[in-house]
Design brief:
Elements: E1 6-12, E2 17-23, E3 26-33, H1 38-46, H2 51-56, E4 75-80, E5 95-97, H3 114-127, E6 131-136, E7 139-146, E8 149-157, H4 159-168, H5 201-227, E9 232-236, H6 240-250, H7 252-259, E10 263-265, H8 269-280
Parallel strand pairs: 1-4, 4-5, 6-9, 9-10
Antiparallel strand pairs: 1-2, 2-3, 6-7, 7-8
Helix pairs in contact: 3-8, 4-5, 6-7
Length: 286
C-alpha cells in the first residue's frame, strides 16, 4: 500500500492527547485534544484523518489540503503512557507503535517511560548532547543523557498533581488551580508568583507547592552543571514555560544561561523524538 508523504504523530498522555503533523521531516504543526472516544477514533481511522472529520470533531488542525487523501493512509506513529487506548489503533493500516524498547537509546531500564525516552532522544538529536530534559507535566521529570545514552533522572509530582493531592488527602484544603500564564518560550515574559509568606490558605498552598518545585529544579540544574558545565537544559511539558520563566525571574545566573543558549524551552521534544525514531527506522513496520 502506498503511503502519503504526510504523517502523524500521537502521544497519549495522562490527561490529554498530543498530536503532530509532518511532511517527511518537516514539521507542520501540532494540536492537543481531550481523550478521544472509541467512536471518534473509528471515524478518524476510516477517513484517514481527513480534514472534514477533524472539523466534525470541532478540532482545528494545521493539515494542508494536500494531506487529505481518502485513498492513501498517512502513517500514524503512536506512543502512550497508558495502555488502554492503544488497542483501538491496532487495525489502522499504517500504524507504528512506539515502545520504550524500540527507542534508539542506550541504558534504558525495563520500566522507563516512553515519554521520557522520546523527549530525551528528541532533545539530544535536535540540540546536541549532553542534555538534561525537565518535563513539567502531570509528573515533573528530570531525564539526563549523553551521546544517545541515558545517564539517569528523577520523578516527582507535578504542580497540578500536588494541588490535587492536597485537596484529595485533606478535609479542609481547597482544590487550587492557579493561573500559570503562557509566556512565549523564545522570550519568556515575567510571570506572577505567589507571595512566599502567605496570609491565606490558598496563597499558602500556592507558595508551598510552587516555591518548593522551583527549588527542586534549581538544585537539579546546579548539580547537572557541576558535573557537565557545557550540558544543555531543555524545559518541556505543559508547565515547562512557566517553570523556566519563574526560575530565570528569580535567578540571574540562570537567566544568563538562557541568554547563552544553555537553557531553553521546547514544547515539542516528544515529536522530535518520534521523528528521530522514524528517520532511523528503529521501529519495523507491522
Amino acid at each position: 500500500m502506498n503511503h502519503s508523504p504526510f504523517w502523524l504523530a500521537l502521544v497519549i498522555g495522562n490527561s490529554r492527547w498530543h498530536w503532530g503533523c509532518f511532511k517527511e521531516k518537516r514539521w507542520l504543526g501540532g494540536w492537543h485534544t481531550p481523550w478521544v472516544s472509541a467512536d471518534q477514533i473509528q471515524a478518524l481511522k476510516s477517513s484517514y484523518f481527513s480534514l472534514e472529520t477533524w472539523q466534525n470533531l470541532g478540532v482545528s488542525v494545521p493539515l494542508p489540503p494536500a494531506a487529505a487523501n481518502d485513498h492513501v493512509p498517512p502513517e500514524l506513529w503512536v506512543a502512550s503512557v497508558v495502555s488502554d487506548p492503544l488497542e483501538s489503533w491496532q487495525d489502522y493500516a499504517a500504524v507504528q507503535m512506539v515502545e520504550t524498547s524500540r527507542v534508539p537509546l542506550l541504558g534504558l531500564y525495563d520500566t522507563f517511560g516512553v515519554d521520557r525516552a522520546l523527549t530525551l532522544l528528541g532533545a539530544g538529536h535536535t540540540y546536541g548532547w549532553p542534555v538534561l530534559v525537565i518535563d513539567g507535566g502531570t509528573a515533573l521529570t528530570f531525564t539526563a543523557g549523553d551521546n544517545n545514552h541515558l545517564l539517569g533522572g528523577a520523578i516527582l509530582p507535578g504542580l497540578s498533581l500536588q494541588f490535587k493531592s492536597l485537596y484529595q488527602s485533606t478535609d479542609q484544603l481547597p482544590l487550587l488551580r492557579p493561573d500559570l500564564g503562557q509566556p512565549d518560550l523564545g522570550q519568556p515574559e515575567r510571570v506572577t508568583l505567589p507571595a512566599r509568606w502567605a496570609k491565606t490558605t490558598a496563597e499558602a498552598m500556592a507558595s508551598g507547592v510552587i516555591y518548593t518545585q522551583l527549588a527542586s529544579i534549581r538544585d537539579f540544574i546546579t548539580d547537572w552543571q557541576r558535573h557537565l558545565p557545557s550540558g544543555q537544559v531543555i524545559f518541556t511539558g505543559g508547565d515547562g514555560h512557566f517553570l523556566m520563566a519563574a526560575l530565570i525571574q528569580q535567578d540571574q545566573n540562570l537567566a544568563q544561561l538562557v541568554s547563552t543558549g544553555l537553557i531553553k524551552a521546547d514544547p515539542n521534544l516528544m515529536f522530535w523524538g518520534i521523528r528521530a525514531c522514524r528517520t532511523a527506522r528503529a521501529i519495523p513496520s507491522l
